[in-house]
Amino acid sequence: MAGSAVRRDQVLAASWEDLRNLLAAFQAVPPYEADPGFYVDWGASEAFQVQVGKGECAQ
Fold first, then answer.
1. What torsion, rounded to 10 degrees, do the Cα atoms 32, 36, 38, 44 define?
2. pLDDT tens digits for 3-42?
């Protein structure tokens, strides 16, 4: 499952171990101080903030 793009047929043919390994990189969230860029949405210029409340889709 090498490469940057994963196709549907690759996922369906993969073992659970392959999928766990592929997704492992997305489980760790670095502290803000270590990687401030991680907390900026694509195309945005400001860091996002986690807020508890009514979501935009729940209106």
1. 130
2. 557 788 888 888 999 888 888 888 888 888 999 888 888 8
Determine contact, residues 6/22, Cβ cutoff 8 Å.
yes
**Alpha carbon of 22 to those of 8, 29, 30, 52: distances in Å?**
14, 16, 18, 30
Structure tokens, 49: 């903030």
Q: 3-state SS of 38-51?
A: HHECCCCCCECCCC
Task: Look at residue 38 in the predicted model and tell me its pLDDT.
Answer: 86
Give the amino acid at 2: A
Indicate the pTM of the whole model: 0.43
